[in-house]
Amino acid sequence: MIQTLLFLLGGSPAYPVCAAEFCAACGGAAAEIAILGQSRAGLEKYGAGILRPMREQGAARFTWIAPGAAGQMDWAAAAVRLRQASGIFICGGNTAAYHCLYVQSPLAGLIRERFFAGVPLAGVSAGALITMEQLRLTPDETGGEGLRLERGLGLVSGFVIAVHYSEQGLDSELREVMRRSGCRLGYGIDEAAVLICEDGKPARHLGGVHRVELDALSGV
User: Fold this and answer.
1) Measured between alpha carbons, how far is 164 from 125 in angstroms, rounded to an integer?
2) Going residue by residue through the chain (220 aa), what tens digit of pLDDT does each one get?
3) With contact defined as beta carbons under 8 Å apart, do 128 and 10 qualify?
4) Taking the C-alpha atoms of 153, 156, 161 and 163 in order, what is their torsion angle to the nearest 10 degrees?
5) Per-residue three-class SS string for the chain
6) Domains of the chain (ranges plus CATH)?
7) Using CA atoms, how far apart are residues 115 and 89, in angstroms rounded to an integer?
8) Is the Cβ–Cβ distance between 194 and 9 less than 8 Å?
């Protein structure tokens, strides 16, 4: 019996690719899915596109978690929604912002607790990156120079990922993250693809997912 189920989406075109399996795992028509976003304005702008594939699978109950107009998060209300959710979906956006909101925050422990208790979780783009044990933040996101490695939620370990992989030509970046993190295994996930992890291990994929391994001696 599968204890944990994680869906790593390479971009928004993957929404309909995994909707059926994700919604079924969350409880089908009885599912209550928590949608974690970067801002309330972002959820209002992109929410319909996120929910449409899930609604088509019969899911009808969604709760929104994001900072309000003033940029403040109601941590207590967010925790209540997470505890009630039968599934968790983390949206995309600025990875540094998501790292601050959901990794370096009071919600991090609760997200891990719910996931390891068996609640399915899906993350797209930045939302996928922060689920990892280690992730990269780019200069565009941090205002610094060069890639910066940070610890993520640690829902899976032993590999790193790149999202928007083929579309943005991220093979070199993925290999750099692998070298710097000490991970010899990486996965490049295309925008319309999903890497599915069962019990902490990559199990299968939908669409274009590219397995990358570093040579133990040369590191290339």
Assistant:
1) 7
2) 679 999 999 999 999 999 999 999 999 999 999 999 999 888 888 999 999 999 999 999 999 999 988 889 999 999 999 999 999 999 999 999 999 999 999 999 999 999 999 999 999 999 999 999 999 998 888 777 778 999 999 999 999 999 999 999 999 999 999 999 999 999 999 999 999 999 999 999 999 999 999 875 445 5
3) yes
4) -60
5) CCCCEEEEECCHHHHHHHHHHHHHHHCHHHCEEEEECCCHHHHHHHHHHHHHHHHCCCCCEEEEECCCCCCCCCHHHHHHHHHHCCEEEECCCCHHHHHHHHCCCCHHHHHHHHHHCCCCEEEECHHHHCCECEEEECHHHHCCCCCEEEECCCCECCCEEEECHHHHCCHHHHHHHHHHHCCCEEEEECCCCEEEEECCEEEEEECCEEEEECCCCCCC
6) 5-213 (3.40.50.880)
7) 11
8) yes
Instruction: Fill in the amino acid letter for 86.
Output: S
| 198 token code pair | 């069962």
